[in-house]
Amino acid sequence: MASHIVGYPRMGPKRELKFALESFWDGKSSAEDLEKVAADLRSSIWKQMSDVGIKYIPSNTFSYYDQVLDTTAMLGAVPPRYNWTGGEIGFSTYFSMARGNASVPAMEMTKWFDTNYHFIVPELGPDVKFSYASHKAVNEYKEAKALGIDTVPVLVGPVTYLLLSKPAKGVEKNFPIISLLDKILPIYKEVIAELKAAGATWIQFDEPTLVKDLDSHDLEAFMKAYSELKTSWSGVNVLIQTYFADVPEAAFKTLTSLPGVAGYGFDLVRGAKTLNLIRTEFPLGMHLFAGVVDGRNIWANDLEASLKTLQSLEAIVGKDKLVVSTSSSLLHTAVDLVNEPKLDKEIKSWLAFAAQKVVEVNALAKGLTGEKDAEFFSANAAAQASRKSSPRVNNEAVQKAASALKGSDHRRVTNVSARLDAQQKKLNLPILPTTTIGSFPQTVELRRVRREYKAKKITEEEYVKSIKEEISKVVKLQEELDIDVLVHGEPERNDMVEYFGEQLSGFAFTANGWVQSYGSRCVKPPIIYGDVSRPNPMTVFWSSAAQSMTKRPMKGMLTGPVTILNWSFVRNDQPRFETCYQIALAIKDEVEDLEKAGVTVIQIDEAALREGLPLRKSEHAFYLDWAVHSFRITNCGVEDTTQIHTHMCYSNFNDIIHSIIDMDADVITIENSRSDEKLLSVFREGVKYGAGIGPGVYDIHSPRIPSTEEIADRVNKMLAVLETNILWVNPDCGLKTRKYHEVKPALENMVSAAKLLRTQLASAK
């Protein structure tokens, strides 16, 4: 029985790629140094899978930034502003597209489906001159082959690539990007021809958009694309891989009718309903790549349950046509449990990171052929039983409190307009008030202090002194810049979700459970294994200390329940909304304690609310109902004079704007600059927004420093569709990933732009 892995984490077990990338970007190492680190990581990944016994090992899933940007490079679809003159795309052009440079901004970045992974959005139009400009897929296949490992090269499918793209600047917004299919297929043919010549026997095309709500025109594009490509892959087996959800019936019929395709890959964890279609409509003689091992969570597979599912599928497709697989790329999981020696032994027995999932896939494949590893299956069954019966998982009081929430919608009594009036009397802010989103740069010294405190190399007293000194510096800087509503900079936090999870019951933490978010940015998601509650206040001490350092309003900074949920590895033994309600109650306790401590502005970030939106429209309403309700629970008990902010970043918000309004926050700060001010279009189309709103005026994920004039121009565009008295001026997101030499001039220009516009507005009266 064959085994297959859809994709694998790239950063390395100790984030080797992250550090190599940042060293290269900072000019401390060469391109050759970066390429060597990458080559070493690739070879270790391929060898690991080969040694375990995986038959279908992926290549070209490694990336220096993301796989969609790699495809943009492959197709030579470089926007003109980067002054690319042709030939093989090198690091300079590639990273300029991803990160921007001193003279031009980066391309838009958004979330990859409903994950916390990001991709760079292609900018396309009728005048794009496509050309075969990156041979990465072929080079990596050859690289693996030189090691004696035959791999399955993975390409982002042509239709998914186009459906994820947007019209370039100056191109009509309703331009049908799918019409470019004929222009990109010749390049795909060249790639296929080179892979075939190099000896590839299988090629995997990732087409995850097949799980979304597609119209007949989009489905026809799949048929057109693969009918055309079929002429170039004679002698090569083609796998079309889907993931993240069920494949709708119409898409399933289209997919399984594509000519010349040898196999189809399905997510049977998040797409369990697809099993019904497989049982009734799967075509004879085709390979089924059955994704029964979860590629997006860290819980050990229930091997006996998966084996039963696989045996039922074997009866349908035949023993020689069934391939055991992961549900998606393992990119979304941590790398290896071996790197977690300090993790609680019982909890560790319940988990499987990427390396362990590879072993699970192979164990299931062997189990199907009668080579079942009895000891491995027995240990797995014991762990499953332990998790179900462990007293640390369930807390009756928490469950009762969460159940009681269902009788109310938890709205603040007074409407937002009246609340804003009451808050303005207390805060006395100017028009176009300035603020930042929360974090300030995390310096080497700051990271050292946190690391040493965690390792008990410095005392708590020394730690508190150091953090207070950092807060004081951040407060002083903001006062010098004349920012209106301050933040304390979050120096005590390495990660916004991890920080809160460490102080909540029901969470476990890893030492090296890093997951790539974008580029070199990695996060270490907490593991929610049990019922959640807040034993003690979490931020009151630091927020109170920060407020005592200034007479200006100081935000209390919290992460919202939906974001904590979506940015964690969540327990899979109860509905997600039940866990979210538990977290909401814990955050509610913290909000009310902050208010009692005299904090009058409290920001509850919901950066990931849009990210968790299901991929199918029929499931949107239910998700948005409990997600928005969870946010309202956190702040329903505060006074009218307490101003509640929230923040959202890097997603398409226009389709959920009414749910955002329904959150009933007093002020929302929201990503806007990197997405070409897409957010503003919803207000141009007539949506009325009465609360405070701060669409981001510059992109913090790029080192580029915007001028005062550029920021003022952005704010003027906002003033064309938003009332002056509700508009805030702020960056797109937190500043922790930037350096102070970038942050200071950018914020200085931001404040100067706000003051310039205040003067202009005053003189216009």
Automatic annotation (TrEMBL):
Zn(2+) 2 binds at residues 658, 662. Zn(2+) 1 binds at residues 647, 649, 671, 733. Gene3D superfamilies: 3.20.20.210. SUPFAM superfamilies: UROD/MetE-like. The keyword Cytoplasm does not apply. Belongs to the vitamin-B12 independent methionine synthase family. This is 5-methyltetrahydropteroyltriglutamate--homocysteine S-methyltransferase.
